[in-house]
Amino acid sequence: MRVTDYDDCWLQYDAVEDPAIRSSYRTRCTHVFASTEGPELGVARDELRTGLGGLLGRDPHLWMHPPRSVDGFLAVGRRERMAVVRAAVDAEEIDALHEEGYIVRSVEWEGKDCIVVTAATDKGMLYGVYHLLRRMAARRPLADVDIVEEPKTEERLVNHWDNPFRASVERGYAGTSIFDWEQLPDLRERYRDYARLLASVGINGIVLNNVNTQKPDRPGANPAVAEMEGWQLLRERNLPKVAAIASVFRRHGIRTYLSVNYAAPILAGDLDTADPLDDDVARWWAEKADEVYDHVSDFGGFLVKADSEGQPGPYDYDRNHAEGANLLGRALEPHGGRVYWRAFVYASHKDRSVQAYDTFEPLDGEFLDNVTVQIKNGPIDFQPREPISSLFGSMPETSVACELQITQEYTGQGVHACYHVPLWKETLDTDTYADGEGTPVKDLLSRREGRGLAGVGNVGEDPNWTGHYLAQSNLYGYGRLAWNPDLDAETITDEWVRQTFGNDPDVVEAVSDILHDSWPAVLDYTTGHLGLMHMMYNQDDVLENHYNPSPGEWPGYHGASEDGIGVDRSEYAEQFHSPLSERYASVEDCPDELLLFFHHLPWDHELDDGTTVVQRLYDNCFEGVEEVRSMRDRWAELDDRVDTARHRHVAERFDEQLAHAKHWRDTMVAYFYDHAGIPDAHGRVPRDD
Amino acid sequence: MRVTDYDDCWLQYDAVEDPAIRSSYRTRCTHVFASTEGPELGVARDELRTGLGGLLGRDPHLWMHPPRSVDGFLAVGRRERMAVVRAAVDAEEIDALHEEGYIVRSVEWEGKDCIVVTAATDKGMLYGVYHLLRRMAARRPLADVDIVEEPKTEERLVNHWDNPFRASVERGYAGTSIFDWEQLPDLRERYRDYARLLASVGINGIVLNNVNTQKPDRPGANPAVAEMEGWQLLRERNLPKVAAIASVFRRHGIRTYLSVNYAAPILAGDLDTADPLDDDVARWWAEKADEVYDHVSDFGGFLVKADSEGQPGPYDYDRNHAEGANLLGRALEPHGGRVYWRAFVYASHKDRSVQAYDTFEPLDGEFLDNVTVQIKNGPIDFQPREPISSLFGSMPETSVACELQITQEYTGQGVHACYHVPLWKETLDTDTYADGEGTPVKDLLSRREGRGLAGVGNVGEDPNWTGHYLAQSNLYGYGRLAWNPDLDAETITDEWVRQTFGNDPDVVEAVSDILHDSWPAVLDYTTGHLGLMHMMYNQDDVLENHYNPSPGEWPGYHGASEDGIGVDRSEYAEQFHSPLSERYASVEDCPDELLLFFHHLPWDHELDDGTTVVQRLYDNCFEGVEEVRSMRDRWAELDDRVDTARHRHVAERFDEQLAHAKHWRDTMVAYFYDHAGIPDAHGRVPRDD
């Protein structure tokens, strides 16, 4: 067992200081009449004990009967079992409620001021409890509350790129994996606390292991540990480990999934093929699914990265992705499981942006109902900014999910502050025009089974979970957006800051400003903020991979040459519906922030405001560093308003970010200057001559 | 995995404040020379570290050799291994000692003041350590101590009505089940702490799951959790879970048992019958027992509720209960296991009180040696007061155990303070006249293998374990009474209060008075204290089940009508030995507190003191509320003598009890008045007219 003291993230539950609010809360929540049947309700009771204990400054009194001698109480349970709930909620309301929905309502019952949390399922009640606690953490009134809330998406998954092999996390920047496969089925307190974090924001599925399920062996590794590559989790001997961890997540309303290797019938079985049309292969998967469900009866399903970056897939047998995915879909179907099949497939012979569409759009309608095609937000690979994937709105007959990266692979790797919620909002709100105007990406992900969001996780063994304390906001924000993609970024930010750092208005304002300034700053100094991307160091064997600048390494992505910069991606623009396709195809209409993604333009091409492309790139790179300096200074001013440990850690990260931002700036502007040969108008760019 | 801060109950180990006592204790117990062989001795060492650390105000120094440089020490271990023990105890004393007995003796050895704890077994030594610590918690002297103690009963079990299914506890009023079957074999700290509590009072067996091993599913419940119904614990895949938890209890001297379903050969096996005379059924049970003992080599055995309240049994195959029980007895016999076969069997066609006797008495002598018939204290069902079961003293050829209810199903469900020890003492001390005068129930339970006590547990996941802090006294008192039914209630109360709340004389007196006033108060306001019972609300689907008053629901139990109240149970009275049968059958001789249990009397029937029945009922109901008020006020006065958290919690429970007692009183007196039409002499009963 490893160390167990770690941060509470947004579940801090600081004591309410305002006497009027505290008094109102204490009246309604000192006494808790809560149902006890079922693990989810046990979790809800525990969370109320912890949360109310913190917020009220004293332990709540738990009851199993409605207390008569008090001025008010909180009731959590089913309508049919509790008169106070019946007084607050009609039967029809419960009947009409989504199975994950809940009602939080104040009611006067037998002369008492009560709050009722109820739902159609235990899971809904757990969500309702978290809603109530979130509301109290923000000091919002309880006297007259009436909340009926349902999720806008059905599937809200976190994808872990955690390797059972050596407990590493691919693109993880917060230490080793929290999942201890060697010691499972023995459980860690940390699993519970992670499940609490996820449940508190409505995550309902977790993929435990990396989509890359095969990894080369490393010299010096303990052979007993090396045995545990991702694909091996499917072996029956490892299923009790999966079952144990699933038991923790289940009671928090979260189904467990595994990433599987397409060649599993060969690797984990004794077949010599994984051909999706082979009967033995189909039988193997069906039996394997039976075995998995025998251990985990509510198992979620499989996530697959096939024919991509060295992983096997149906192409190995000249079959297409629908044939590949449906093979697994058929095996899972009797158990209610689902296949998440990643659309991240590319070969090197043509521009990467067009390939997912070319591969998947022709297969629309061929996927089984229990197959979801999981599409990254953009066509490349989680760059600081990309246009949306052209597959959104192009597969009307297919269940699709949007894959977002919570972990900061290309946005500072947990050293830099970079708040991803505005980035995600941009993707989700982008209108695809698939059904004419008003068909944003988020609507394609909503309210149908098999549709939703998948976020690549960012937690690790670090005491703060996410490397950077501020990066906790990305996990929080992802969950909240997955629950309701209509939420605006500012609302999410405000919720997170208040729960994490308290309700001091100066702190709320400063931290909110820092978060909202952070992504533009990263865009400025790492890309020049005109749609360039993929300018980072890219050597797989070093830790700086995808972290340091290295614009000369992959010129094909940004097209820098003596005559200009940017890439003509008119072929990609054509994959969109009108008028999006025309907008991106036009230099005039294409938004500045995507201009060089879609167009190769001369260095001296004039932008709307008269600035040249190269000067804008210089300006933005310099501006980005100043934005970091400003964030750093803003944070420094909070030194007596945030607890010392967290304040110092974040301050030191900002010092590091500033130094690294300068390195990016200097590398980028030198590279631009080398190709453009046009000096900076303000004389800031170092010149070799 | 869940929250881990909970109360220490009676193992508080508060620091000794009196300088003379502390000095004496420190001289003898600062240094501990303790054997380290065996898990029970490891537990003993841990308990000494915790206990002495608290009591002495400093960590004890543990030695593995007799320390020479000190003035005195505590020695815990076997006579043959330690010279200091040989100096204190003769070999013959050890040879004569019961295997669970122990000796605690002061001795001067090599000029040092020593205390010796020794026994014939490691378990005995653990009990001796708890005895010593209990003595010190009560500040009793150690200078000249000589204790030789043995249990008076062989079997001292706690029965858990905990459902693996959804972690609920049937008749549990302290939150969810502490047993986390989903996550077992992963162990919780709480299991160890629960085992400590049980071992400290001498419990030596635990039945982990509810006697109702089948439970209907509930809408909204997570189906993945429903899988774990009680009967499924016998499945081989779940036996590692049983083995894990057994490993914790074993080292605390406690054997693990399971409740099993009589139809297990059908449910968990692939047979189509559970007929006890079927060879395949016998073979199935034998093989299942082999399997269980393969996982838990000291497994205790099976507890069975058969042909009762919907559970299957031998009646399904026209076999009797001896045939049913002996089937399981034969399977367990090769492994030293035991069957506890509940006598709680009734059908609806005649008065419930007579049915257990009618069913079981004719079978006396037919049960195997390793079958114990487990009889509830009274003939109905754990009512606030009942006469003893007529089976006690009627089955001389059968091993019997007395089943008591620690949990407060009908006595306020952990909201009301109700100390059960005096209730149990009444049962245990009642003379059955089975072997002429002087054959009390307790003697029928004593000193023979297979005889003893079974208590239905009252702990749950609540921080205080038992819902009400004062209800911890029932768990404590049950254990102490099971060890020695001759202990008087006052002794047990004094022990518990001192260990739980310290030795402040005012606190000891007040809490002791409250405990002893509590049962009579409950009898007064819930029954009128003339032997009525079963007047509570009885809808299974609501949390108020068996909690609220509802006297009109089951009039057959109390017989209220216009002409009088009470039930003629002369048939039941006849089942007792003389002169008990005549005493109960006679209106004149029957004790007041059981009068209406045995007799239907006119409302205006005059009692010995000239009061009428209905007036006594009125008076007692009103008096009961005043008794609660008095307990509440008495507790309130302790607000600066008991720590704030516990004081506030109990104070709030008393407020609630007072409100609920009034509700009972008002409901009952209105009901009596409605039938009797006789006004209250003091004008307190509300009248409709």
From TrEMBL, chains A, B:
Signal peptide as annotated in the record: none
GO CC term, one of those recorded: extracellular region
Residue ranges constituting the Glycosyl hydrolase family 67 catalytic domain according to the UniProt record: 137-465
Membrane-crossing segments per the record: none
Residues covered by the Glycosyl hydrolase family 67 C-terminal domain: 466-684
Taxonomic superkingdom: Archaea
Keywords: Carbohydrate metabolism, Glycosidase, Hydrolase, Polysaccharide degradation, Xylan degradation
InterPro entries (alphabetical): A-glucoronidase_C_sf, GH, Glyco_hydro_67_aGlcAse_N, Glyco_hydro_67_C, Glyco_hydro_67_cat, Hex-like_dom2
GO biological process: xylan catabolic process
UniProt domain Alpha glucuronidase N-terminal: residue ranges: 9-132
Keyword check for Glycosyltransferase: no
Similarity comment: family membership: Belongs to the glycosyl hydrolase 67 family.
Protein name as catalogued: Alpha-glucuronidase
Native source organism of the sequence: Halopelagius longus
